[in-house]
Amino acid sequence: MNPRITFAVATRVLTQVRRDHRTAAMLLVLPCLLMTLLWWMFEESGAVFDRLGPGLLAMFPFIIMFLVTSVTTLRERSSGTLERLLAMPMGKLDFLVGYAIAFGVVAAVQSALAVALSVGLLDLDVQGPVWLLTVVAIADAVLGSALGLFVSAFATTEFQAVQFMPAFVVPQILLCGLFVPRDQMPTVLEKISDVLPLSYATDAMQTLTRTAATGDVWQDVLVVAAFAIAALGLGAATLRRRTP
Amino acid sequence: MMKNAVEVADLVVRRGGREVLRSIGFTIERGSVTGLLGPSGCGKSTLMRSLVGVQQLTSGTVKAFGEEAGAKALRSRIGYVTQAASVYDDLTVTENLNFFAKVLGVNKGEVAEAIDAVDLRSHADVVVGQLSGGQRSRASLAVALLGDPDLLVLDEPTVGLDPVLRRDLWELFHRIAARGAAVFVSSHVMDEADRCDRLMLMRDGVIIADDTPLRICEKTRTDDIESAFLALVEGAGDQS
Ligand SMILES: Nc1ncnc2c1ncn2[C@@H]1O[C@H](COP(=O)(O)OP(=O)(O)OP(=O)(O)O)[C@@H](O)[C@H]1O
Ligand SMILES: [Mg+2]
């Protein structure tokens, strides 16, 4: 890996995001709008918003980054720019980590806005430190990016890449403990949810709303980060310099 | 002593279950412009991909400057233009070049030079997505010029360009070769043949002629490369 190249990739991706106003707006405004929608739905019963809100704060960056990353990297594969980069002195990890950094930055801004809105205006009740909520969200976003990078290796068109979303993401949403607490699910499903990264992200968010103790939260963040690193590693392994 | 820029031996490549390159061998020296001509689908792009080390080989060897194609040490010495313009549509020409310059570790000053070389200065700050097809492929070509590569591998860089611009670019290729680099250019337009120092004619994954354009015409007793190509194809048909 070479920091100069990694950084070049990250800044280039950020320039592209900034250039595309519609995507930039979607990335930053959409989570806020959705949180507001959720708050409005449960206007009468603030307790439900307090229970679901944190889980959604974990989910948005994950889903959005998964989609954005799998489609952008696929575009990079099909446009020939990836082939050109791999013929240059570009390490595979430079490419992947560069992307992860760029989308991590986007996620930081995105979740800072969503968290500020939820806690400041929508009265989301958080016992733990608010900034830690943002840290969890960033870890989630990097995880989403890493998984998106990984699955884009298995798609040959953008259309296929989008199809991975229901396959990879929806089961995690269903099993992460937001709808049914994980310990109340059938044993098999509970075991499955134990190996899905989003479960840990949701756990972290829910712990933050319940208690001010942060030990468990950091443990969950570490698990999420480990999943992200593993996905990046797999992504690097599936990224081939020589193709058939 | 000077090593050959490119050495290919017994190269076989299968793609999608078909033998696309069939036992190809040749060398390219520095300081010349070599053209690779052949009909669509004959394997030109596959051969170029093999030279820059992004194509999976079935058997045989491809070396550049004495090292295995695609070796790390080679990657900053080879400029490669893919057939489709491989630049980012949502960045300006300058932004694209700045990015690739950083990847290559090349001085930013070279960016303006490369833009001038492909005559895009008037569009330097236009987003690539808003350029015409020919302008876009010139932007892609400019990227390959960064860092004074010792080997330029150009896959149909002049497609869709007007005659004046095409002449200018061929002059540029010769200037680059005169500096000591090896330039390898593919085309499927036969009338570009005369601009090459050396010409390789390819058909169905086999090189059917490899000489100066003039001598190819002499040997086949024809006046232009298109007729020479036809004569060679028909000659091969007679033998089999
Ligand atoms: N990605 C691929 N997978 C499988 N087969 C491929 C692939 N790309 C090309 N081929 C096959 O390899 C053969 C040679 O293709 P190649 O792109 O090298 O031709 P070419 O000479 O560059 O043609 P053109 O002048 O149209 O660019 C073709 O028959 C094509 O069907
Ligand atoms: Mg081709």
From TrEMBL, chain A:
Domain of life: Bacteria
Domain ABC transmembrane type-2: 18-242
Signal peptide location: none
GO cellular component, one term: ATP-binding cassette (ABC) transporter complex
Location of the protein in the cell: Cell membrane
Any one of the GO BP annotations: response to antibiotic
Keyword Membrane set for record: yes
GO molecular function, one term: ABC-type transporter activity
Keyword Cell membrane: yes
Transmembrane intervals: 24-42, 54-74, 95-119, 131-154, 161-180, 221-239
Membrane topology reported for the UniProt record: Multi-pass membrane protein
Pfam families, per database record: ABC2_membrane
PANTHER family given in the database record: MEMBRANE COMPONENT OF ABC TRANSPORTER YHHJ-RELATED, TRANSPORT PERMEASE PROTEIN
UniProt-recorded name of the protein: Transport permease protein
Automatic annotation (TrEMBL), chain B:
Keyword terms of this UniProt record: ATP-binding, Nucleotide-binding
Domain ABC transporter, residue spans: 6-229
SUPFAM superfamilies for this protein: P-loop containing nucleoside triphosphate hydrolases
GO molecular function, one term: ATP binding
Cited PROSITE patterns: ABC_TRANSPORTER_1 (PS00211), ABC_TRANSPORTER_2 (PS50893)
InterPro entries tied to this protein: AAA+_ATPase (IPR003593), ABC_transporter-like_ATP-bd (IPR003439), ABC_transporter-like_CS (IPR017871), P-loop_NTPase (IPR027417)
UniProt key word ATP-binding: yes
Protein name: ABC transporter ATP-binding protein
Organism from which the protein derives: Nocardioides agariphilus
